[in-house]
Amino acid sequence: MTTGQPAPQERPQRVLDVVALKALAHPLRTQLWDALMAGPATASQLAERLGESSGLTSYHLRQLAKHGFIEEAPGRGTGREKFWRVVEADTRIEHGRARTPAGREALAIFGDEWLRLRYRSAARYHERKRSGREEEWAGAAADLDSYLHATREELSEMVEEYTELLTRWGERLGARSENERPPGARTVEIQFRAFPRDPGAPPGAGTSDDRPAEGRER
Hints:
Elements: E1 2-3, E2 13-16, H1 18-24, H2 27-36, H3 43-50, H4 54-66, E3 70-72, E4 84-86, E5 89-93, H5 101-130, H6 135-138, E6 144-147, H7 152-174, E7 213-217
Parallel strand pairs: 2-5
Antiparallel strand pairs: 1-5, 3-4, 6-7
């Protein structure tokens, strides 16, 4: 995953170890980290957004900062009203590092909550779209599914090409400061998952037959 605004290739690379993963493996911390990816915010603002107390969000924000996931946003906030922002980095999880029972549990807690947040984010966009609140963006946004028959090596190559595409756009858009963004620019979430289907599923499950399906938009 890429946190913060995508930026040039010299941005820091971070591979989460078990200690960092365990620190993130709390549903509220995952929600706070996700919320801050839209931009800096205070504990009070996040508490209102997430329906929690400011004392609780403040505590968990400090824990995220302690483990290097977020930091104070310079030049914003006064006194106790700190603005927090995500530490920009290409953050990756090496599943091989989570081989201990504690590591597997932490990965499961974080992974389940992260996937739930991604689904909720997409579902809320579709709700806004159906109610006519996203008419301007409806023609630009997309929700695509494809079902292909591929080897492990082919899937790996496909993911690498997608990553290169995202990197190019990251270099183009991520280099702009907040003041340089054109009017109408919004935080855009790009979700990408590519994985093998359940081998026990019937042939062609999810498609009209057993032939590779073209990408289609919902």
